[in-house]
Amino acid sequence: MNIPQSSFPRVVIIGGGFAGLSLAKSLCRKEVQVVLIDKHNYHTFQPLLYQVSTGGLEPDSIAYPIRKVLQGFPDFYFRLAEVEQVDPEKKTIVTSIGPLEYDSLVIAAGTETNFFGNTSLEENSMAMKTIPQSLNLRSLILQNFENALLTDDLHKRDALMNFVIVGGGPTGVELAGALAEIKKGILPKDYPDLDTRRAQINLVQGASRLLPAMSEQASKKAEDFLEDLGVHVWKGLRVTEYDGWTAKTNDKTQFETAALIWAAGVKGVRLEGLTQASCQGKGGRLKVDTFNQVEGYQDIYAIGDIAEMSSEELPYGHPMMAQPALQQGRHLGKNLVAKLEGKAMKPFVYNDKGSMATIGRNKAVVDLPKFRFQGIFAWYVWMFVHLYFLIGFRNRVVVFINWVYNYIRFDREARLIIRPFQKGYPKELYDSQSD
Amino acid sequence: MNIPQSSFPRVVIIGGGFAGLSLAKSLCRKEVQVVLIDKHNYHTFQPLLYQVSTGGLEPDSIAYPIRKVLQGFPDFYFRLAEVEQVDPEKKTIVTSIGPLEYDSLVIAAGTETNFFGNTSLEENSMAMKTIPQSLNLRSLILQNFENALLTDDLHKRDALMNFVIVGGGPTGVELAGALAEIKKGILPKDYPDLDTRRAQINLVQGASRLLPAMSEQASKKAEDFLEDLGVHVWKGLRVTEYDGWTAKTNDKTQFETAALIWAAGVKGVRLEGLTQASCQGKGGRLKVDTFNQVEGYQDIYAIGDIAEMSSEELPYGHPMMAQPALQQGRHLGKNLVAKLEGKAMKPFVYNDKGSMATIGRNKAVVDLPKFRFQGIFAWYVWMFVHLYFLIGFRNRVVVFINWVYNYIRFDREARLIIRPFQKGYPKELYDSQSD
């Protein structure tokens, strides 16, 4: 892999998300060599992927070159590669561009969509965890309307204009809201020769309420907001099968739809070579102690979404959001330096800053540790926080301008089919290879 | 294709470039039904494609939804389709979504890259006529540097950092300049572990000077600018063969390169069904009279790059640029209306507004009909004109902000490999299908 030997111990970080990058930054100018590996050459701001899918933002404004983050960091190396395996005995990882030895390994590889072994769903539904996947979804949404124009079969036309989103977490809720706004503001003008009032947005949630990680109040309000926008919210309903056209559920309800978006679960990105015991977290996430050390290993750490630091109060660890990832990255950086200096590591304590979701124009829900609010002020807070955590000044300005423009004009100008999505096309090109 | 019958005659326009859209606009609220067909759902601002390839702009900011242009136009229809054939006898076109009858047909399909039948070049070199192609090139450029890091073979590493651009027209010149600026401003910071001074940019021109369509003065200055930036300019040299690694020329000169960009010729997009005689323009372009009528047909017109309105002074017709396309579109709109009203059509007269090319920061060349200038003022003029002709307010603002940012920070933040490019991967996915 052509990484020169250093006089300092080598920390290898897998993943350039919030966790990996905040760790990398905290190790700058410390007595370590750092190698950061990611399968993309950019950091993805996942919370805004749904806006890429719905034409509100360009992908380039929520991505940031990892090499740029690391510019000027001495003894830092970035490699574009996929990690295939960990060999804890030899303290080596095996990657698509060869093996690499480590002194400390930090796994910050995040999560991927979990279809729970259901192949009909995996093959026929759309995921939205990466930029290529979000662009595929953008293309499919637009292609379906173009195709709806071409058929005289009303049944088929309705299915092409029916969107079923499975999963009532923030991703599902935000996507449903964005689609509803497109239906209202753009479709009638873009497709005057199509009865777009017949377009449907169905949000299917297995649990008894939306946004189950947030307060009851937020759930209730989010549901109200969605229904105001014309979204059909289904609770206690699970999609069990989807052949690309008909979605069956655990109930008698069925949906005829040409676009099913699966946002109903994630699992830890799987690395071969770790013991079964270490991957026993929910969805195969890595079990870590309060120092983010992976169960059973001294020199392997996990941070961010892939790490499950469970406790009595938090049986499944911290929420899978930017905040715990950022805080764990920063904290582990200090611990690694302390350990090298022969000092004791300190346990991680999560500083809960709350959580939020946006539903649409002037409609958001915010739960702060001390108080909760919904509506237009929540929406401003949501926007401010998202701009703040977006990496890069240029990105912030471009996203801000898009938002102002979209707000004033009720528009989404990135409704572009740059690369058409073909169902059943080699998955490795459209998803895996590029995701 | 589900286009309703209208009481007005039907004008079918193939292509949503400058020509097709300006014609469409000029037919708004006239006594015609208009059907615009394009294989993309967006208009591409081709003059800035090279900035997408070099990470200076996001693709979405130089694309604009065609449906948005046509919003509110009564009796206008857009269809996303590929036109396969014209049947002048039946006054019908055959498309990927079925046949369509026309009363008047306007071909504004533009041009595509011409490899002059050289298969080694067609298979192994990169073209840059569409957004997907530009994104492929962006990915390849960045991937080559990532791969250069991984090899100890100096020969191979040099080839991965060697860019050969064939064609000394505006595309070749602008791309060479942009690559040279990346080499200078970004590579040393992004790749501290790579000797990026060894990166080479070679611009190979068959003719005796660069920018042959512009003045001698502009050619000379462009060459000086490029050489100041460290570009190797080769004149009177033609690349004859390229196997993906070694580029052979008509001379003893050879290049070892992993990235050959072919910008040395275009040809009219081919439509089956027209007579041989009508496609006898240079590169198979359609020969038209001064009313833009295609030779041998009464009801078929061609406008923009695909139309060759030749005369004694202009043996190959007007230059293939935005201006003639815009003017022809507008003019033909008036002529079609005149014809319907039983009035005489007027011949097209080109109002030459000059031409320009940019080489880099503060470096551009401008030929106006009355005077010529080069340097920083030309560069401002170039930027102003390009912002002016870009479609969409949001696009203009986003491009402007990118330019200001890139100028102040000497940066290009869209250096993202969103979808990796694999040489030899099914072309239909990476080019044809999506281009």
UniProtKB/TrEMBL annotation, chains A, B:
Transmembrane segment boundaries: 379-405
Q: Which organism is it from?
A: Aureicoccus marinus
One GO MF term on file is:
NADH dehydrogenase (quinone) (non-electrogenic) activity
Q: What is this protein called?
A: NADH:ubiquinone reductase (non-electrogenic)
The family this protein is said to belong to? Belongs to the NADH dehydrogenase family.
Keyword Cytoplasm annotated: no
| Matches recorded under Pfam families | NDH2_C (PF22366), Pyr_redox_2 (PF07992)
Q: Where is the External alternative NADH-ubiquinone oxidoreductase-like C-terminal domain?
A: 353-408
Q: Which reaction does it catalyse?
A: a quinone + NADH + H(+) = a quinol + NAD(+)
Enzyme Commission number(s) from the entry? 1.6.5.9
Q: Which UniProt keywords apply?
A: FAD, Flavoprotein, Membrane, NAD, Oxidoreductase, Transit peptide, Transmembrane, Transmembrane helix
For the FAD/NAD(P)-binding domain, which residue ranges apply?
A: 10-329
